[in-house]
Design goal:
The structure is a single chain. Helix content is 80%, strand content 0%. The protein has 240 residues and is mainly alpha-helical. Helix 1 packs antiparallel against helix 9 and helix 4 runs parallel beside helix 7.
């Protein structure tokens, strides 16, 4: 049990660092192009990690779940996260992202019929109150960025809940790698159009390249830890 908390804490720390690096890279490279390289680097890293593991055959009935994870969870949600970070700033986007456990709990109750225990309800109320106090009293809030960040949170929460339907059938590596491939493919045409419109403003230097590599590798590690923790919680809840 102690290890699960270490994984969870590591996930939050790594995820938080991504907002800082994202804000830096987004000042040099456009949003969807950053997302595309982020997915591509993560997919390559996962492919290298899984070279020695056995390939799992995906059942046709599960294709829709992988598509939801790749399209909504990564392509839509993470792209919105990057766009929200660019507009609202890293600190505000990170704050909105802290609502993820709240939205996941609510969606799990609606979609998976999970019961909300009193400690979870108290945690949700406190989380909402904390976010309201900061956002509601803050100055110079970019509401468009906040809205887009909320969309990112909702998409990620939906993906997290849906992934539980197949989490006991496939390894974390398979779930993440296939989803990354789908997100990369979805992002290629969007990135191409974005580059055509913004190419005079793009600045590709060593800092931007290192930032992209960091985002891809850390994103890959972070997603593995996050999904592993979600699977652990789901299986624990089923045993109880």
């Amino acid at each position: 049990m102690k290890k699960s908390y270490v994984y969870l804490l590591t996930t939050f720390m790594l995820w938080g660092s991504l907002y800082v690096v994202s804000q830096f890279v987004l000042g040099k490279i456009p949003t969807f192009t950053v997302a595309m390289f982020r997915y591509l680097i993560a997919f390559i890293a996962l492919s290298l990690i899984s070279l020695k593991s056995e390939k799992e055959k995906i059942e046709k009935s599960d294709y829709k779940y992988f598509f939801i994870m790749g399209f909504i969870g990564y392509f839509i949600s993470v792209d919105c996260q990057l766009l929200g970070t660019k507009i609202a700033g890293g600190s505000m986007a990170s704050l909105i992202n802290s609502l993820n456990p709240v939205i996941i709990s609510v969606m799990a109750m609606i979609i998976l019929n999970e019961k909300l225990e009193m400690n979870k309800i108290v945690g949700i109320v406190l989380s909402l109150a904390g976010v309201y106090m900061i956002i509601g009293t803050g100055a110079n809030i970019q509401f468009l960025g906040v809205l887009i960040s909320f969309i990112a949170v909702i998409g990620w929460a939906f993906m997290s809940v849906i992934s539980r339907k197949i989490s006991n059938k496939y390894s974390v590596l398979t779930l993440t790698k296939v989803s990354m491939l789908i997100a990369t493919i979805c992002n290629i045409p969007v990135s191409f159009l974005e580059v055509q419109m913004t190419h005079p403003l793009i600045q590709v230097d060593l800092g931007a390249v290192l930032g992209l590599v960091y985002m891809g590798v850390v994103f890959c590690i972070n997603i593995i830890l996050a999904i592993a923790y979600l699977i652990y919680c789901f299986l624990k809840a089923k045993r109880e």
